[in-house]
């Protein structure tokens, strides 16, 4: 299988879209459903990204 440099390791999306989704979630103004509508991602993928983001925040505390 060929390595694609711009693909996120955990999801079948680009790193840029992954980071954009994390940024929208970190603002705290949008719900997961709204972020899914803005980005065009499935709500379950946004939920997984949000879980990953929250786990990283918990580890830093």
Report on this structure.
The chain has one domain (15-60). The radius of gyration is 12 Å and the shape is globular. The protein is built from 3 helices and no strands. 64% of the residues lie in helices and 0% in strands. It is mostly helical and 61 residues long. The longest helix is centred in the C-terminal third of the chain and has 18 residues, at 43-60. α1 (15-27) packs antiparallel against α2, α1 (15-27) packs across α3 (43-60) and α2 (32-39) packs across α3.
Task: Provide a compact summary of the structure.
The chain is mainly α and 61 residues long. Helix content is 64%, strand content 0%.
The amount of helix comes to 55-70%
- Contiguous runs where pLDDT drops below 50 for at least 5 residues: none
The counted number of beta strands is 0
Give the overall form: globular
How do the helices and strands line up, and which of them pair or pack?
Elements (H helix, E strand, L loop, with lengths): L14 H13 L4 H8 L3 H18 L1
Helix pairs in contact: 1-2, 1-3, 2-3
Structural descriptors:
61 residues; mainly alpha; globular
